[in-house]
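User: Run a structure prediction on this.
Assistant: Running it now.
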Amino acid sequence: MNGIVAGTFSLPDDPADHRGILSWHAQPHDKKLREAGSYGCLVEATLPAAALAAAAQAGEIILRLEVDEARSGGLAIYGERFGRYPVDPTLVFQLR
């Protein structure tokens, strides 16, 4: 966030089975399997105080999700109708 790493995660490669129940229901019902059962992992990261300070000073939040070149394979972000968890990508701010 704003140039400061908030977390690094190594996740399994494209899991797909009954846990991706939302993906089964979201795909077209045309007797072809595309992303049937695909799901990811629910990932949470706490933003470092320095990143929040940089965002406050800049007056904006820049959030970047990326895949390291050494782990080329892409990045999938699931929303409330696809994957395993019925939630959209979410940022939660707790003001103190």
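Residues 67 and 74 are 6 Å apart (CA to CA).
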